Amino acid sequence: MSAPPDSPRPLDGVRVIELSSEMGAMAGKLLADMGADVILVEPPGGDPTRDYPPFLDDEPGPDRSLFWWHYQTSKRGVTLDLDQDDDRERFRRLVASADVLLECERPGRPADLGIDFPQLAELRPELIMASVTAFGRNSPSRHEQFTDLTLLAGGGPAWSTGYDDHSLPPVRGGGNQGYNTACHYAVMSILTALLHREVSGRGQHIDVSAYAANNVTTEMASYTWLVQQGTVQRQTGRHAMEQPSLPSQLACADGRWVTTGFPPRHPRELRWLYDWIVELGAEVEFPEAIFLKQGAERSEPLDIQLIGEDDEVTAIFSASREGLVLVASKVSAYEFFERTQKAGISTGVIYSPEEALQDDQFQARGFPVEVHHPELDRSFTYPGAPYKFGRTPWRITRRAPRLGEHQHEVFADLEPAPAD
Amino acid sequence: MPSRALEHIRICDFTGQLAGAGSTKWMAAFGAEVIRIEDPVMRGTWDVLRMMPPFVDERRGPDMGGGFNNHNVEKLGVTLNLRTDKGKEILAEIVRRSDAVCENFAYGVMERWGFGYERLKQLRPDIVYVSNCGFGHSGPYHEYKTWGPIVQAMSGLTFTSGLPEQAPAGWGYSYMDHTGAYYMAIVHRARTGEGQWVDMACTEAGLTLNGPALLDYTVNGRPMRREGQPHSNRNLWPPMAPHGIYPARGEDRWLAVACRSDAEWSALAAEIGSEAAADPGWSRLADRLARQDELDDLVSQWTRGLDDFETYARLQKVGVPAAPVRRPQERVDQDPDTQAWGLWPEVEHSKMGRVRVDGLPVHLSETDWEIRRGGPCVGEHTEQVLTELLGMSGDEIAGLREEGVV
User: Fold this and answer.
1) Does the pLDDT at position B181 exceed 70?
2) Are B143 and B292 found together in one domain?
3) Total beta-carbon pairs less than 8 A apart between chain A and chain B
4) Which of B189, B344, B351, B359 is least surrounded by Cβ atoms within 10 Å, i.e. has the fewest?
5) What residue spans define the domains of chain A?
6) Which residues 124-153 on chain B approach chain A with CB closer than 8 angstroms?
């Protein structure tokens, strides 16, 4: 259910020049899939991420990296050697035709090449230049070596993520989320500058720090320290907190896990859980079911303040938690999810990414989209829209560019440089 | 001087918690007028963060929640009882004067109040309406309820964070709640004058964050649910070894190290300085990948006796990417980088006094953000907004108070 190929998009007519990079590629994709004409500038041999696995049919090749395919959709591609004078001149002409320059170069390099904001703004006063760097351009740590892992470890997310058992290391979530986080903020700041330009006509420079981005993407960890000098502690599958919270993940009969929240405590819900246990023929192995029955006959929901003080409330609450563990162990994760949600109890299946893609909800909303690769004469299923716009929908207009694919058309369209 | 970047934009804001309120915070920090509409009867506690820790002192109540303050700086707070006709009329007037309406209620709440998209459009044809909930407003699960951990579970993010032979580790916070790119709709409106409805489902935004893993499945048929996966402290694309979070000296101290090349490995091996590390059998990436468990043991044995911050500095000096797993205090109070950035601005809150909050990770050269005013107390700006925006008199407002409308 992809959007019609001619539907308008929010960033139609906005031209973005992106210097290729692993860290900033997601920002370019977010802009390109919403209509910006993103021209990706690669070094002559191609961007290093073209060599990242996984590859189509597991065979390496510059146009076969699925990592590349994902992050470069809807962009056009050219190659330029910015260390060469004439290519730098071409680059300047390209920027003079653009609204936005997105770059993740090492701090200092754009200035060394004479293509930093002051020089480029002279050519194009409306230019918005976003520099996404690991620590910010003027930071004391700006020359540090980094990867997605070290940003997530140093910047806060890893401290909050992992297991109740602290002999296991903190965990860095997969999928380059440290870079993705920086890219989301980069896009929001570019849009902010575009909105300002609509009114003022003026461009500006944007300094984006991936390290700072991760520091302010930790929910409670930072502000628990800021407000009450408290230190949150990581817990298996749930928010890091100062005080431990109850375990939330349950193992199901099919080997999958579900995540749950507060166990049933309303009489109606306790009855529902009791009935489910009976239906599974499990009340014999679970004598505590009797407490669920007691809870079902009460006139009021359990008062959670009384847990640990009132024996009956404590027993019912405990049976409610243990009852969920029991039913989870006897049904599939999906069945657990569907049946609890239908009873008004919030839970979720811990899907692997491919399982989510195949789920009814994602299918019904048209999330998976087909992208054609003309040279292979094949189409492949890609992850689709991160958000549904009523009038100007998200759309992948083309698969990732092959090396130098749009060199001719891009430069043929530019005005020749004025003679001296 | 307050930021002028978005001073021409007004948001009618029903959002709460982090998923909603965090995204309108951005706009408020850039000078947009963000008017929070809250229920006077419940004293705004639909947003549970109003009542929740952290707290600056022993005081409690809907104006004292530290998380609420963090996500609602620079916004205005108005109370409006939408159970009353007069309350609905006033809301209609605010919508007529707004560029966008944002909310993150469960499905159907705005409709029940009589302010679904069709009605909003009648009030203001070019309105941008952003609804944000876990499963969006269509599909078989649209009536199911979610929060951060459920969204992350359903979108694959929980699964892809963890160690082998263990339960999923997930994320120690609501990662998905932190960004909202619906901004694009406001840009489109600024450029064309057209409004629209953005139906945001957090689960979909979340699933886009594991793109290469999805393509490996749809193109090559290789699922992420397979033997040995996830092992997310390692790196699949591109493979690196060593690449992990290793124990350091002291309780719960850890050091992240990644070698992107054979040269970086030799530099690390020289620092380790043991015979085992010098073994030429480790010099090629393919060999290190083949014996990665053994390699991790070798690195762990070395790091275990060392100070995390000293070793990080030492490895950076020889060009090896490394970082300590910083605790909140170390990032906030002891980090020259976040200090130099001005990442933790101090706001003045009407009841809490001066308190520090999360700033923004960007700096704009012409129209940078500014965060000075704390989150609004319940109804703190009702009078100001009704007077300045709607031109009501003091008597009229007193009457509304009497009737329980505000």
Assistant:
1) no
2) no
3) 525
4) B351
5) 15-218+367-413, 257-349
6) 135-136, 138-141, 144-151, 153
